Amino acid sequence: LDVGQGDSELLVLPGKVKIRTDAGPNQKVLEVLEKVLGPSDRYIDLAIISHPQLDHFNGFNDILSRYRIGAFIFNGRTDATALGEWGALMAKIEERKIPLITFASGDKIHFRENHIEIISPSRDFIQSAELNDTGLVELVKTPTFRALLTADIGANVENYLLKRFSAEDLQVSILKVGHHGSKFSSSQEFLETVQPKVAIIEVGAKN
Hints:
The chain is of the alpha/beta class. It has helices spanning 28-37, 54-57, 59-63, 84-95, 123-126, 155-164, 167-170, 188-194, and strands spanning 9-13, 17-21, 43-48, 68-74, 100-102, 108-111, 114-120, 137-141, 146-149, 174-176, 198-200.
């Protein structure tokens, strides 16, 4: 979803089960979300926060003013506690008694024949001083397409994925390009292995 300088992805599964990853930096996400879901659909089954940086999580503060969310998933890092927006989001989640679940590499989400595998962060990366290393990387598998959502990972995490998984495991139809197209992401070896048909760079205008 186009939220400007930030990440936001929406997966709608059969039965209108909705899983959204990240929500951009501000309320722009509301306008885009309503265009996609329509004005009457006000429920999101699962919300995933890839990592606690403003351009990934803050839109959820606005979403919660209009939508109900079944559960939140995040990586367990609370480094954004200095940001008032993160504290506000955590307070809203607690106030609404929404389950908040910690995921890491090896965890999976299943719905019928659809699967989301978390393939990073590893135990080492989740402790990294660089928050971008801690982002939840999702390998989405459906009967019709595969997608790789890479949060803000750099080439170091990409190299870890190349060593841990086979080329066949990592090949997808859709690649959410890491870290908004940063020069420190999307190495040649990684792109040649993933071989996406479509690559999407989520970036603000004039960046």
